[in-house]
Amino acid sequence: MSKVYQKHYEQIPDLQFVLGKIHEFRMEAFVYGGYVRDTLRNVPFQDMDVQVSCREIALAFIQSIEESNRMIHLETRTTKDHPELSLEYQCYTMVIQTPMNTKLKIDISYSDATSLEGDSLGNCDFTANNLMIDYSGKLSTRIKAYQIGLRKKFSEAEWLAKCIRDCIDGKLVWMIPDRFSKNMGTSMVSQIEFMKKMNLRLQKMLSKGFTLTGEHLTSFRLANAVDVNKMR
Q: What's the rounded Cα separation, in Å, for the pair 8 and 84?
């Protein structure tokens, strides 16, 4: 009688699977935004935002996924987050099949090294969204306290603890850097568009059960929806 051998496949968690693929190239990458936020709040996540340092790493990751026959959908996007700061972002959006038998949507992005800091500074709105996680599961902050003028108020450990606490507690604390908001442009149109974008981000977070605390770590203040409409 012939013997039937059953092969057991290791069901690697999604984070380790995705970042592990990049780790194979001896390159660093991190996951940020909604995935980290939802994981800390024990909310089922729907997608994963991955940041890598260059286009070559993104393409190598894509090739690895395709070779493993896990690619379901792939498209390329180029966006310009702010018309007056010339920050252009390349992003590959894909849906893959993970070892956990999950269809996972991934946005893997990269930007020029010269604009990478501006990328992060301009896009981190709340402390609850300021967390990132690496391959080992270690949490850290995307934007450091000193980068938004809070060196004297928070040590590195205290800053990380605050961002984690605000995330878990569901508190919205604005942290738009002064130097970004001051440089976002003098034209009324660009200011309106920026405020509209921040309003949309606020509404999205409120819909997820977060609460606006009224706490601002910088001088940024959001014009409410009525004010934005009046400025048209």
A: 54
